[in-house]
Structure formats: structure tokens, C-alpha cells
Design a protein that fits this description.
The protein is mostly helical and about 110 residues long. The chain has 2 domains: about 35 residues; about 55 residues, Orthogonal Bundle (Arc Repressor Mutant, subunit A). Helix content is about 55%, strand content about 10%. It is built from 5 helices and 3 strands; from the N terminus they run αααβααββ. Strand 2 and strand 3 form a beta hairpin. The longest helix has 18 residues.
């Protein structure tokens, strides 16, 4: 950020950052949906029923119970296609959040 380096007040950097935040706040009030005009703007997909929601719910249960068998997972997530659930479990294992032990899963600390 060469421009930032040229404009920042090195002796009073806190005041400079506060002024920058104030300027951003003023722009937000004057142009409330300015970010939507960006070519990079994308509306976030629905959370309900998403993989993010299922992952979060699964991890929350697993942290509480320590270990979940496949039958318990099927019981907790009976409204979700099990193939989709298996993909989510495989991804969580690949990312190092959970560990598969025979027919059960445990949370990796």
C-alpha cells in the first residue's frame, strides 16, 4: 500500500486511523449501498440448509458429546441426504476438525 505509506501521519497514526474510520462512516451514511456497486459484490447464499449450517450444527453436537456414531449422526440429521452428510464429514476430516474411528467420529482438539 504505497499510497497509505505516503499519507499516514507517523507521529499521530491513531488520529489518522480514526479519521479514516470517520470518513468510511460518512461514506456509508451518504451512500448506503455503495458496496453493491462493486463488480466483486456477491450476495451471500442462504444459510438455512447450507453446508455451513450443517457443519456448524454437527461440530456443536460433536464437541458436546465427544464421540458420535454413524447411527447417531443419521438420527440427528435425518432430514439431510446421507450422501451429502458423508461429503461434509469427509471434508471436516480432511480439514482436520474430526477423526473417524471405525463407525464413529470424534472432535480433534
Amino acid at each position: 500500500m504505497p499510497l497509505l505509506g505516503k499519507t499516514i501521519d507517523k507521529k499521530n497514526s491513531r488520529d489518522w486511523y480514526y479519521a479514516l474510520m470517520d470518513y468510511g462512516n460518512m461514506l456509508k451514511k451518504k451512500f448506503p449501498e455503495l458496496n453493491k456497486k462493486s463488480t466483486h459484490y456477491r450476495k451471500q447464499s442462504s444459510f438455512k440448509g447450507s453446508n455451513r449450517q450443517i457443519r456448524g450444527e454437527f461440530l456443536k453436537i460433536l464437541i458436546k458429546k465427544k464421540v458420535l456414531s454413524e447411527s447417531e449422526i443419521r438420527k440427528h440429521f435425518k432430514n439431510i441426504n446421507y450422501q451429502k452428510m458423508k461429503q461434509i464429514l469427509n471434508q471436516l476430516e480432511k480439514e482436520g476438525f474430526i477423526k473417524r474411528e471405525e463407525d464413529a467420529f470424534r472432535f480433534v482438539k
